[in-house]
From TrEMBL:
GO BP annotations, alphabetical order: protein import into chloroplast stroma; proteolysis
Stored InterPro entries: Peptidase_M41, Peptidase_M41-like
Protein name: Peptidase M41 domain-containing protein
Organism: Punica granatum
GO CC annotation, single: chloroplast
Amino acid sequence: MSDTLDLSSYAQNLPGWTGARLAQLVQEAALVAVRKGHGSILRSDMDDAVDRLTIGPRRVGIELGHQGQCRRAATEVGVALTSHLLRRYENADIECCDRISIVPRGQTLSQVVFHRLEDEKYMFERRPQLLHRLEVLLGGRAAEEVIYGRDTSRASVSYLADASWLARKIVTIWNLENPMVIHGEPPPWRKKVKFVGPRLDFEGSLYDDYGLIEPPINFKLDDQVAERTEELIRDMYNRTISLLRRHHAALLKAVKVLLNQQEISGEEIDFILNKYPPQTPLSLLLEEENPGSLPFFNNREQVGEFEYAVLSQSGDQNV
Protein backbone atom coordinates (compact mmCIF):
# COMPACT_ATOMS: atom_id res chain seq x y z
CA MET A 1 0.00 0.00 0.00
CA SER A 2 1.36 3.41 -0.97
CA ASP A 3 2.02 5.80 1.91
CA THR A 4 0.25 8.62 0.07
CA LEU A 5 -3.02 6.68 -0.09
CA ASP A 6 -5.79 7.73 2.30
CA LEU A 7 -8.20 4.85 2.82
CA SER A 8 -10.52 6.89 5.07
CA SER A 9 -11.50 9.13 2.13
CA TYR A 10 -12.64 6.09 0.14
CA ALA A 11 -14.64 4.80 3.09
CA GLN A 12 -16.34 8.20 3.43
CA ASN A 13 -17.13 8.45 -0.28
CA LEU A 14 -18.71 4.98 -0.32
CA PRO A 15 -21.55 5.19 2.24
CA GLY A 16 -23.26 1.94 3.11
CA TRP A 17 -20.30 -0.25 2.24
CA THR A 18 -19.51 -2.85 4.88
CA GLY A 19 -16.03 -3.78 6.04
CA ALA A 20 -16.08 -6.86 3.83
CA ARG A 21 -17.04 -4.74 0.83
CA LEU A 22 -14.18 -2.30 1.52
CA ALA A 23 -11.79 -5.24 1.88
CA GLN A 24 -12.94 -6.44 -1.53
CA LEU A 25 -12.16 -2.98 -2.88
CA VAL A 26 -8.56 -3.17 -1.63
CA GLN A 27 -8.18 -6.67 -3.09
CA GLU A 28 -9.48 -5.45 -6.45
CA ALA A 29 -7.05 -2.51 -6.31
CA ALA A 30 -4.19 -4.97 -5.66
CA LEU A 31 -5.17 -6.91 -8.78
CA VAL A 32 -5.26 -3.68 -10.80
CA ALA A 33 -1.81 -2.74 -9.50
CA VAL A 34 -0.43 -6.13 -10.52
CA ARG A 35 -1.88 -5.80 -14.03
CA LYS A 36 -0.28 -2.37 -14.41
CA GLY A 37 3.06 -3.57 -13.03
CA HIS A 38 3.07 -1.28 -9.99
CA GLY A 39 5.10 -2.18 -6.94
CA SER A 40 2.39 -0.91 -4.57
CA ILE A 41 -1.26 0.13 -4.67
CA LEU A 42 -1.44 3.71 -5.94
CA ARG A 43 -4.32 6.15 -5.96
CA SER A 44 -5.01 5.47 -9.63
CA ASP A 45 -5.32 1.75 -8.82
CA MET A 46 -7.87 2.46 -6.07
CA ASP A 47 -9.87 4.76 -8.35
CA ASP A 48 -9.90 2.10 -11.05
CA ALA A 49 -11.05 -0.50 -8.53
CA VAL A 50 -13.86 1.78 -7.29
CA ASP A 51 -15.09 2.26 -10.85
CA ARG A 52 -14.97 -1.47 -11.55
CA LEU A 53 -17.02 -2.34 -8.45
CA THR A 54 -19.54 0.51 -8.67
CA ILE A 55 -20.03 1.02 -12.42
CA GLY A 56 -18.35 -1.88 -14.15
CA PRO A 57 -15.25 -2.67 -16.20
CA ARG A 58 -14.19 -0.66 -19.19
CA ARG A 59 -16.24 -1.25 -22.30
CA VAL A 60 -14.07 -2.50 -25.13
CA GLY A 61 -15.00 -1.75 -28.71
CA ILE A 62 -17.48 1.04 -27.86
CA GLU A 63 -15.90 4.42 -28.43
CA LEU A 64 -17.56 7.71 -29.22
CA GLY A 65 -16.47 9.82 -32.15
CA HIS A 66 -14.73 13.13 -31.63
CA GLN A 67 -17.98 15.10 -31.64
CA GLY A 68 -19.59 12.77 -29.09
CA GLN A 69 -16.57 12.91 -26.82
CA CYS A 70 -16.57 16.70 -27.00
CA ARG A 71 -20.23 16.83 -25.97
CA ARG A 72 -19.73 14.44 -23.06
CA ALA A 73 -16.58 16.25 -21.92
CA ALA A 74 -18.30 19.66 -22.03
CA THR A 75 -21.23 18.37 -19.98
CA GLU A 76 -19.15 16.68 -17.28
CA VAL A 77 -16.66 19.55 -17.01
CA GLY A 78 -19.52 22.03 -16.72
CA VAL A 79 -20.98 20.15 -13.75
CA ALA A 80 -17.62 19.81 -11.98
CA LEU A 81 -16.44 23.35 -12.75
CA THR A 82 -19.68 24.84 -11.43
CA SER A 83 -19.19 23.12 -8.07
CA HIS A 84 -15.61 24.39 -7.79
CA LEU A 85 -16.60 27.94 -8.73
CA LEU A 86 -19.45 28.01 -6.21
CA ARG A 87 -17.17 26.74 -3.46
CA ARG A 88 -14.53 29.30 -4.40
CA TYR A 89 -16.57 32.48 -4.87
CA GLU A 90 -19.78 31.87 -2.89
CA ASN A 91 -18.39 29.64 -0.13
CA ALA A 92 -20.94 27.00 -1.07
CA ASP A 93 -21.26 24.02 1.25
CA ILE A 94 -21.47 21.42 -1.53
CA GLU A 95 -19.40 18.53 -2.83
CA CYS A 96 -16.18 19.18 -4.76
CA CYS A 97 -15.08 17.13 -7.75
CA ASP A 98 -12.64 14.28 -7.22
CA ARG A 99 -12.17 13.29 -10.87
CA ILE A 100 -13.85 13.23 -14.28
CA SER A 101 -13.62 10.40 -16.77
CA ILE A 102 -14.91 10.01 -20.32
CA VAL A 103 -13.84 6.36 -20.50
CA PRO A 104 -16.93 4.19 -21.19
CA ARG A 105 -17.66 1.84 -18.27
CA GLY A 106 -20.61 -0.46 -17.70
CA GLN A 107 -23.69 1.34 -18.99
CA THR A 108 -22.19 4.85 -18.78
CA LEU A 109 -20.13 6.78 -21.30
CA SER A 110 -18.69 9.27 -18.80
CA GLN A 111 -18.83 10.04 -15.11
CA VAL A 112 -18.07 12.66 -12.47
CA VAL A 113 -16.99 11.51 -9.00
CA PHE A 114 -17.50 13.93 -6.09
CA HIS A 115 -16.07 14.00 -2.59
CA ARG A 116 -18.88 13.26 -0.16
CA LEU A 117 -19.57 15.63 2.73
CA GLU A 118 -20.09 14.65 6.35
CA ASP A 119 -23.29 12.77 7.17
CA GLU A 120 -24.63 15.72 9.18
CA LYS A 121 -24.54 17.93 6.09
CA TYR A 122 -27.13 15.70 4.43
CA MET A 123 -29.31 15.37 7.52
CA PHE A 124 -29.76 19.14 7.90
CA GLU A 125 -29.64 20.51 4.37
CA ARG A 126 -30.46 24.20 4.11
CA ARG A 127 -31.92 26.29 1.32
CA PRO A 128 -28.60 27.83 0.08
CA GLN A 129 -27.02 24.39 -0.10
CA LEU A 130 -29.91 22.97 -2.12
CA LEU A 131 -29.94 25.93 -4.51
CA HIS A 132 -26.18 25.59 -5.06
CA ARG A 133 -26.62 21.88 -5.76
CA LEU A 134 -29.35 22.80 -8.26
CA GLU A 135 -26.88 25.09 -10.04
CA VAL A 136 -24.36 22.24 -10.20
CA LEU A 137 -26.90 19.96 -11.89
CA LEU A 138 -27.65 22.70 -14.42
CA GLY A 139 -23.95 23.23 -15.13
CA GLY A 140 -23.87 20.53 -17.80
CA ARG A 141 -26.44 22.18 -20.08
CA ALA A 142 -25.02 25.62 -19.27
CA ALA A 143 -21.52 24.55 -20.36
CA GLU A 144 -22.90 23.25 -23.65
CA GLU A 145 -24.61 26.58 -24.31
CA VAL A 146 -21.47 28.55 -23.46
CA ILE A 147 -19.34 26.50 -25.86
CA TYR A 148 -21.81 25.57 -28.62
CA GLY A 149 -24.49 28.23 -28.26
CA ARG A 150 -28.11 27.09 -28.36
CA ASP A 151 -27.04 23.97 -30.27
CA THR A 152 -27.29 21.71 -27.21
CA SER A 153 -27.56 17.93 -27.21
CA ARG A 154 -28.96 15.07 -25.14
CA ALA A 155 -25.69 14.66 -23.23
CA SER A 156 -27.04 16.67 -20.28
CA VAL A 157 -30.55 15.19 -20.19
CA SER A 158 -29.92 13.07 -17.09
CA TYR A 159 -28.65 16.11 -15.18
CA LEU A 160 -31.69 18.12 -16.28
CA ALA A 161 -33.99 15.37 -15.00
CA ASP A 162 -32.24 15.43 -11.60
CA ALA A 163 -32.45 19.23 -11.56
CA SER A 164 -36.19 19.17 -12.26
CA TRP A 165 -36.73 16.63 -9.48
CA LEU A 166 -34.70 18.70 -6.99
CA ALA A 167 -36.44 21.96 -7.91
CA ARG A 168 -39.86 20.38 -7.47
CA LYS A 169 -38.86 19.05 -4.05
CA ILE A 170 -37.64 22.50 -2.99
CA VAL A 171 -40.94 24.09 -4.01
CA THR A 172 -43.34 21.44 -2.66
CA ILE A 173 -42.12 19.02 -0.01
CA TRP A 174 -39.44 21.18 1.60
CA ASN A 175 -41.43 24.37 0.92
CA LEU A 176 -38.25 26.46 0.95
CA GLU A 177 -38.63 28.69 -2.12
CA ASN A 178 -41.31 31.37 -1.67
CA PRO A 179 -43.35 29.26 0.76
CA MET A 180 -46.77 28.27 -0.49
CA VAL A 181 -49.63 26.65 1.41
CA ILE A 182 -50.68 23.28 0.00
CA HIS A 183 -54.35 22.64 0.75
CA GLY A 184 -56.40 19.48 0.57
CA GLU A 185 -54.26 16.94 2.47
CA PRO A 186 -54.98 16.88 6.22
CA PRO A 187 -52.38 15.25 8.50
CA PRO A 188 -52.81 11.51 9.14
CA TRP A 189 -53.96 11.94 12.74
CA ARG A 190 -56.93 14.06 11.59
CA LYS A 191 -58.19 11.67 8.96
CA LYS A 192 -61.30 9.63 9.61
CA VAL A 193 -60.70 5.98 10.34
CA LYS A 194 -62.22 4.31 7.34
CA PHE A 195 -61.21 1.09 5.68
CA VAL A 196 -63.01 -0.92 3.07
CA GLY A 197 -61.68 -4.16 1.70
CA PRO A 198 -60.12 -4.14 -1.74
CA ARG A 199 -62.53 -4.01 -4.63
CA LEU A 200 -62.75 -6.98 -6.95
CA ASP A 201 -62.79 -4.77 -10.00
CA PHE A 202 -60.43 -1.97 -10.99
CA GLU A 203 -62.94 0.85 -10.91
CA GLY A 204 -62.38 1.71 -7.28
CA SER A 205 -60.49 4.81 -6.29
CA LEU A 206 -57.96 5.08 -3.48
CA TYR A 207 -59.74 8.24 -2.35
CA ASP A 208 -63.02 6.38 -1.75
CA ASP A 209 -61.91 2.91 -0.69
CA TYR A 210 -59.00 3.59 1.61
CA GLY A 211 -59.24 7.27 2.54
CA LEU A 212 -55.48 7.65 2.14
CA ILE A 213 -55.46 11.14 0.61
CA GLU A 214 -58.26 13.65 0.56
CA PRO A 215 -59.18 15.12 -2.83
CA PRO A 216 -57.33 18.43 -3.30
CA ILE A 217 -59.31 21.60 -2.75
CA ASN A 218 -57.02 23.70 -4.98
CA PHE A 219 -57.55 22.20 -8.42
CA LYS A 220 -54.89 24.51 -9.91
CA LEU A 221 -52.20 23.30 -7.52
CA ASP A 222 -50.34 21.19 -10.10
CA ASP A 223 -50.18 24.09 -12.54
CA GLN A 224 -48.91 26.44 -9.84
CA VAL A 225 -46.22 23.97 -8.76
CA ALA A 226 -45.09 23.47 -12.35
CA GLU A 227 -44.94 27.22 -12.92
CA ARG A 228 -42.98 27.85 -9.72
CA THR A 229 -40.60 24.99 -10.49
CA GLU A 230 -39.95 26.28 -14.00
CA GLU A 231 -39.32 29.78 -12.65
CA LEU A 232 -36.83 28.48 -10.09
CA ILE A 233 -34.94 26.41 -12.68
CA ARG A 234 -34.82 29.38 -15.06
CA ASP A 235 -33.36 31.69 -12.41
CA MET A 236 -30.71 29.18 -11.34
CA TYR A 237 -29.85 28.40 -14.96
CA ASN A 238 -29.27 32.07 -15.77
CA ARG A 239 -26.94 32.36 -12.77
CA THR A 240 -25.00 29.29 -13.89
CA ILE A 241 -24.72 30.59 -17.44
CA SER A 242 -23.29 33.93 -16.30
CA LEU A 243 -20.86 32.14 -13.94
CA LEU A 244 -19.45 29.89 -16.67
CA ARG A 245 -19.28 32.68 -19.23
CA ARG A 246 -16.98 34.63 -16.93
CA HIS A 247 -14.72 31.55 -16.87
CA HIS A 248 -15.06 30.61 -20.54
CA ALA A 249 -11.30 30.13 -20.99
CA ALA A 250 -10.99 27.84 -17.96
CA LEU A 251 -14.00 25.83 -19.13
CA LEU A 252 -12.58 25.34 -22.61
CA LYS A 253 -9.13 24.49 -21.24
CA ALA A 254 -10.55 21.83 -18.92
CA VAL A 255 -12.53 20.30 -21.79
CA LYS A 256 -9.43 20.12 -23.99
CA VAL A 257 -7.36 18.56 -21.21
CA LEU A 258 -10.07 16.00 -20.52
CA LEU A 259 -10.27 15.08 -24.21
CA ASN A 260 -6.50 14.65 -24.30
CA GLN A 261 -6.06 12.70 -21.05
CA GLN A 262 -9.45 10.91 -20.90
CA GLU A 263 -9.44 11.66 -17.14
CA ILE A 264 -8.87 14.80 -15.09
CA SER A 265 -8.65 15.26 -11.32
CA GLY A 266 -10.15 17.90 -9.08
CA GLU A 267 -6.67 19.25 -8.31
CA GLU A 268 -6.11 19.82 -12.01
CA ILE A 269 -9.40 21.74 -12.22
CA ASP A 270 -8.27 24.03 -9.38
CA PHE A 271 -4.94 24.53 -11.17
CA ILE A 272 -6.75 25.53 -14.36
CA LEU A 273 -8.97 27.99 -12.47
CA ASN A 274 -5.88 29.57 -10.93
CA LYS A 275 -4.06 29.83 -14.26
CA TYR A 276 -7.08 31.13 -16.18
CA PRO A 277 -8.81 33.73 -13.96
CA PRO A 278 -12.20 35.28 -14.82
CA GLN A 279 -12.50 37.21 -18.07
CA THR A 280 -9.36 35.60 -19.53
CA PRO A 281 -9.46 36.12 -23.33
CA LEU A 282 -9.78 32.97 -25.39
CA SER A 283 -6.94 34.15 -27.63
CA LEU A 284 -4.41 33.24 -24.91
CA LEU A 285 -5.70 29.67 -24.89
CA LEU A 286 -5.80 29.38 -28.68
CA GLU A 287 -2.22 30.65 -28.97
CA GLU A 288 -0.88 27.78 -26.85
CA GLU A 289 1.15 25.16 -28.66
CA ASN A 290 -0.77 22.27 -27.08
CA PRO A 291 -4.00 23.46 -25.40
CA GLY A 292 -4.86 19.92 -24.29
CA SER A 293 -1.90 19.53 -21.95
CA LEU A 294 -0.93 20.86 -18.54
CA PRO A 295 2.86 21.32 -18.79
CA PHE A 296 3.20 22.64 -15.25
CA PHE A 297 0.89 20.19 -13.56
CA ASN A 298 0.78 16.45 -13.87
CA ASN A 299 0.34 15.63 -10.22
CA ARG A 300 -1.20 12.21 -10.48
CA GLU A 301 1.15 10.91 -13.17
CA GLN A 302 4.27 12.35 -11.56
CA VAL A 303 3.44 10.89 -8.16
CA GLY A 304 2.67 7.49 -9.65
CA GLU A 305 5.81 7.36 -11.76
CA PHE A 306 8.00 8.57 -8.88
CA GLU A 307 6.63 6.01 -6.45
CA TYR A 308 6.92 3.23 -9.01
CA ALA A 309 10.53 4.18 -9.81
CA VAL A 310 11.52 4.25 -6.13
CA LEU A 311 9.85 0.94 -5.42
CA SER A 312 11.40 -0.66 -8.50
CA GLN A 313 14.89 0.48 -7.48
CA SER A 314 14.46 -0.80 -3.93
CA GLY A 315 13.17 -4.10 -5.29
CA ASP A 316 16.15 -4.50 -7.60
CA GLN A 317 18.54 -3.82 -4.73
CA ASN A 318 16.83 -6.42 -2.57
CA VAL A 319 17.05 -8.99 -5.34
